Amino acid sequence: MNKDLTSGKPEKVLWSFCLPLFGSIIFQQLYNIADSFVAGKFIGENALAAVGNSYEITLIFLAFGFGCNIGCSVIVSKLFGGARYSELKTAVRTAIISSTVLCALLMLFGGIFCGSLLKLIRTPDNVFHDSKLYLEIYILGLPAVFFYNISTGIFSALGDSKTPFCFLAASSISNIAMDILFVRVFDMGVAGVAWATLICQSISCVLALIFVFRRLSQIHPKEKSPVFSWALFKEIASVAVPSILQQSFISVGNVVIQGVINGFDTGIMAGYSASVKLNNLVITSFTTIGNGISNYTAQNVGAGKLPRIRDGFKAGLKMVWIICVPLVILYLTASRPLVNLFINNPSKDAVNSGILFLRIVAPFYFIISVKLVSDGILRGATMMKQFMIGTFTDLILRVVLAYVLSLFFGSVGIWCAWPIGWTVSMVISVIFYRRGKWMKS
Question: Can you tell me the distance from the alpha carbon of 418 to that of 411, in angstroms, rounded to the nearest whole number?
């Protein structure tokens, strides 16, 4: 069901819209957590290290799908808020066509340079083969990643966050069962984990596309809409490209950090692989809520209702902080059993490094959540220059500090880079938010 985000109490509207998005990202992260869980528990510590090692590179590819999602979603939200339905349909087709071309190029690049990327991050010999195998299968599934992201972006733009949640919940639960089936019953090793993810994502993608086109058929513009528009392509690209760059550079930064971590032993690699999945579950959840706030902001900008954006910021902060409290408590008090979930007969280094990472970063979830809410509004209002400054500040600080502090404090120095980068970039993003036109309306 399409939903107008420009009317009603902002706090109630955002809670209703963002909670299914939050649920969706929980299930989305189950894909990766299930892969790590099955690899660590049923194959071994090296398999967990291999999946975690490949994961940082898969995030680069995922960044492009995420950027296409956001570019399409923000522009379609603005058109929907302004009741410009003919342009809306053209924008959707334009996004799908351009994303298809981008996906094909990425698959070609990944197929050629898969091994080189793994060597670039100093992948140890004992996990190289499994890392490469996992990554090659993931690249085959890129079309499912791209078109699912486009579909969810369109649903969100139309104010519907419940339909993609239902698809993803069913798909994620199926992925867990299929992971176990392929690894335990068919003894496929790391390849089984990768194939299970590809199959489940593909089914979810096909169903989402069918429902998207059915939903769009219910929108009847007054005039015929063109198949493709270069003007709308430029608008979509103006949001998508910075979003892709943001996610790509964050992923590249994570790959560089992974390279630093690969200089330590396999135990620390495995501990980091487990704990960073738990960390990414939180960060991606906040990012998804920020995406929902982007849709809310874009619809209200399109409808000319700027004062609602201030109320949306306050409601967004309340939402993420309510979510923060139980997560921070959980990660601080139950870090050991959480890390142990991923590793069967873990080494002391693996457990200790995973626990320490969680205990260092968890209290700062209150800080990074403020930045991601601010970023959601900046992106929804297409203030992409300001959005990028805040993002790159975080990235550069984390990468540089991870390398420098590791020289003096070992792996602990790497973990400390996260809170510092988050804090500085949060201050910058909030300053940009307070300079927005909605503060003067």
Answer: 12
- Helix (H/G/I), strand (E/B), else coil: 440: coil
- For 371, other C-beta atoms within 10 Å of its C-beta total 26
Mean per-residue pLDDT for 110-126?
83
Q: How far apart are CA 224 and CA 208, in angstroms?
A: 25
Tokens of 304: 């000319």
Q: Which residue has the tokens 């260092």?
A: 360
Can you tell me the distance from the alpha carbon of 253 to that of 247, in angstroms, rounded to the nearest whole number? Answer: 10
How far is residue 238's CA from residue 403's CA, in Å, rounded to a whole number?
33
Q: What is the 3-state secondary structure (H, E, C) of 377-425?
A: HHHHCCCHHHHHHHHHHHHHHHHHHHHHHHHHHCHHHHHHHHHHHHHHH
Dihedral of CA atoms 364, 370, 371, 375 in degrees, nearest 10, equals: 150
- Calpha distance 111→117 (Å, rounded): 11
Can you tell me the distance from the alpha carbon of 360 to that of 366, in angstroms, rounded to the nearest whole number? Answer: 13
User: What letters, b where the CB count within 10 A reaches 16 and e where it falls short, cover 236-248?
Assistant: bbebbebbbbbbb
pLDDT score for 441? 63
> CA torsion angle for 353, 358, 361, 367 (degrees, to 10)?
170
CB distance 277 to 35 below 8 Å: no
CB atoms within 10 A of CB 333: 12
pLDDT of residue 31: 64
For 126-169, the pLDDT digits (tens) are 888 888 888 898 899 999 989 988 888 888 888 887 887 887 77
Q: Helix/strand/coil (H, E, C) string of 197-223?
A: HHHHHHHHHHHHHHHHHHHHCCCCCCC
Burial of 126 (0-12, 13-18, 19+ CB in 10 A): exposed
Q: How far apart are CA 34 and CA 179, in angstroms?
A: 7
Assign 83 to helix, strand or coil: coil
First to last CA, the chain: 31
Query: Measured over all CA atoms, what is the biggest interatomic distance in the chain, rounded to whole angstroms?
Result: 67
- Local structure of residue 262 (DSSP, 8 states): T
Please give the pLDDT value at position 360: 93
Report which DSSP code applies to 441: -
Please check whether residue 184 is in contact with residue 344, taking contact to mean a CB–CB distance below 8 angstroms.
Answer: no
CB 68 within 8 A of CB 92: no
Query: Which run of H or E residues covers position 97?
Result: helix 85-120
